[in-house]
TrEMBL record:
This is Amino acid ABC transporter ATP-binding protein. It holds the Pfam family ABC_tran. Keywords: ATP-binding, Nucleotide-binding, Transport. It comes from Halomonas llamarensis. It is found in: Cell inner membrane.
Amino acid sequence: MINVRHLIKRFDGNAVLDGIDLSIEQGEIIVVIGPSGTGKSTLLRCLNFLEKPDEGHITIGDLSVDAAHARRDEILALRRRTAFVFQNYALFANKTALENIAEGLIVVNRWPKKIAHSRAHEILTSIGLADKADAYPASLSGGQQQRVGIGRAMAAQADVILFDEPTSSLDPEWVEEVLALMKQLATERQTMLVVTHEMSFAQDVADRVIFMEGGRIVEQGPPSQLFQAPEDPRTRDFLRKVL
Ligand code: ADP
Ligand code: MG
């Protein structure tokens, strides 16, 4: 469903993404791991043009974009097919939980406000936050805020949800509820690309784990293979430090 070919992104002449090739099946759950500064966030951000890639092709469904020559309408179409969950939630502070989830439906999808709010209510119910519809982010726990962030991504009905370290900003007590919601989405076979340091989540939930270093995919495979029998010395070295 998703096909990335030879994606390159340079900052100040440095190739932070150095020729990424990646295919993702519909319903596949992929976890990306690797040392910090290795290009994981840049990969996710390039997939929906939060950063503009310098070279390469991104295909999602029937939409194919040549990164170097992407037109504005193609970029907008690509963004509609991808949803992003940020490490720091990135909620609108002056909007309620309900409004945060409904906002994209109103502004991007041009749904009438009443229908968008009704859909946002359904989502709040499915993520266990129906009673927080009218709460502002500041009055929610970190875990609740991130669940709203995930609810917003669910509302977009994107082909893939991109998670960039969704639990890294959370106090330890809130991590599990966010991972539980992500597991719920995985059970529903929502296609997901997840950058995380939560190795047990990768082990339990991922169909495939990708190890990145230096802007490249070094090794990938099912979690059983990558964690128990890594082939590349760089993967082994990384896993020794984090496991
Ligand atoms: P990771 O998410 O794996 O920690 P990043 O994708 O955030 O890594 O960053 C990869 C490299 O790109 C780092 O060296 C970082 O400093 C650099 N980088 C990221 N964003 C920018 C930017 N906007 N301008 C310049 N350099 C950047
Ligand atoms: Mg990062």
